[in-house]
Write a structure and sequence with these properties.
There is one protein chain. Helix content is 59%, strand content 5%. It is mainly alpha-helical. The protein has a two-stranded parallel ribbon. Helix 2 runs antiparallel to helix 3 (31-43). The chain is flat and about 40 Å long.
Length: 82
């Protein structure tokens, strides 16, 4: 959304999300999982939402996160449903 609507780069999106996470006025649930997702997002081509979904599932004890999204399977650590 931020990259398409506001024409931000992935790096700019990552910086904006990190600033939100570090702001005391925001209370973010499971901030450790969000930070891990942000790291994965910053390392590659995955969408932040895909990274957060995968990290949230892993945090809940899931060993695999299944997806129909080829990009998420390649870049966010999910398993593609064929």
């Amino acid at each position: 959304m931020l990259t398409s609507c506001y024409e931000l780069t992935g790096e700019q999106v990552g910086q904006a999300l990190e600033a939100i996470l570090r702001t005391k006025q925001f209370l973010v649930e499971r901030v450790d999982q969000v930070m891990r997702a942000l790291r994965v997002f910053g390392e590659g081509k995955a969408d932040f939402a895909d990274c957060l979904i995968e990290r949230s599932a892993a945090g809940a004890g899931c060993t695999k996160t299944m997806t129909f999204d080829v990009g998420a399977s390649k870049h966010a650590g999910m398993t593609l449903i064929a």
